[in-house]
TrEMBL record:
Keywords: ATP-binding, Cell membrane, Membrane, Nucleotide-binding, Transport. It comes from Thauera propionica. It comes from the Bacteria. SUPFAM superfamilies: P-loop containing nucleoside triphosphate hydrolases. This is ABC transporter ATP-binding protein. Pfam families: ABC_tran.
Length: 261
């Protein structure tokens, strides 16, 4: 079976071990263009590691990882650089370079890949800040001066700098208040509509998940045990799914998503 032309991410038979700790064991996942896939799983189940595999920051011990149809371990240096321009990432840790201003952080990928001319950078930075509801003046601030939520939004602005086809987001709404989370959801949905953006996000935030995921991938027992739209996922019998979606917190979030008070 081969992946289609519109398969953005393809993971086949992925095996990941850290010493004796087997994190993934024969894991499969395919993400099609335009999807918003929410990756959920218990703490330590290997969600962040999976995002890292997708962009080649780490390599699994077994299986195959393809991004935009290309194997990550193949291709020239130029092919790898070309690939880097096509995705943006927002990881939980190391979101911003602490020695650079917010503006320099956002401009960093544009400069590094030689995409924008020097005189265009300020305008581009202001545009990206506006997308995440930050002010142009925020460009001059240092990361240490920002609140946790502002760091998230500035890091998202940087991830969007290259107008990527694929966004990988690790807990993008953790630490945001409900209004900010809702604007984040609106922004992602608009970008998907306008640019055909594909998103893979790790999240524990059921409101965000219910508002935008086209499919939910459940990572448990070292593999993806369910990969379906939310409504179907809710009917899958699995201990993790029961806890995550049908506990008190889950029931309330799903009721909100269904417009019940
Ligand atoms: N570089 C590493 N060296 C050793 N073990 C690692 C390394 N990176 C991850 N692990 C281990 O792999 C497992 C999966 O980690 P990962 O961060 O991917 O989980 P996660 O599902 O994202 O967790 P959380 O929801 O708590 O952030 C954990 O047991 C972790 O300790």
């Amino acid at each position: 079976m081969s992946a289609g032309a519109d398969t953005i991410v393809s993971l086949r038979g992925v095996v990941t071990r850290f010493g004796r700790n087997v994190v993934h064991d024969g894991l499969d996942l395919e993400v099609e263009r335009g999807e918003i896939v929410a990756l959920v799983g218990g703490s330590g189940s290997g969600k962040t590691t999976l995002l890292r595999h997708i962009i080649g920051l780490t390599q699994p011990q077994g299986g195959e990882v393809r991004l935009f149809g290309e194997r990550l371990d193949e291709g020239s240096v130029n092919a790898r650089i070309a690939r880097q321009r096509r995705y943006g990432v927002l990881f939980q840790q190391g979101a911003l370079f602490s020695a650079l201003t917010v503006g320099e952080n956002i401009a960093f990928p544009l400069k590094e890949l030689g995409i924008a001319r020097h005189e265009e950078l300020d305008a581009l930075v202001a545009l990206k800040l506006a997308m995440v509801e930050m002010e142009p003046e925020n460009a001059l601030m240092m990361p240490a001066e920002l609140s946790g939520g502002m760091i998230k939004r500035a890091a998202l602005a940087r991830a969007l700098a290259l107008e990527p086809e694929l966004l990988l987001l690790d807990e993008p709404t953790a630490g945001l208040d409900p209004d900010r989370s809702a604007s984040f959801v609106r922004l992602i949905l608009a970008l998907r509509q306008e640019l055909g953006l594909t998103v893979v996000l790790v999240t524990h935030d059921l409101d965000t998940l219910a508002a935008m995921a086209t499919r939910v991938a459940v990572l448990a027992d070292r593999r993806i045990v369910s990969y379906a739209p939310l409504q179907e996922t809710l009917h899958v019998k699995h201990p993790f799914i029961e806890r995550f979606f049908h506990g008190e917190h889950g029931r309330r979030a799903l009721a909100r998503a269904n417009g019940e008070s």
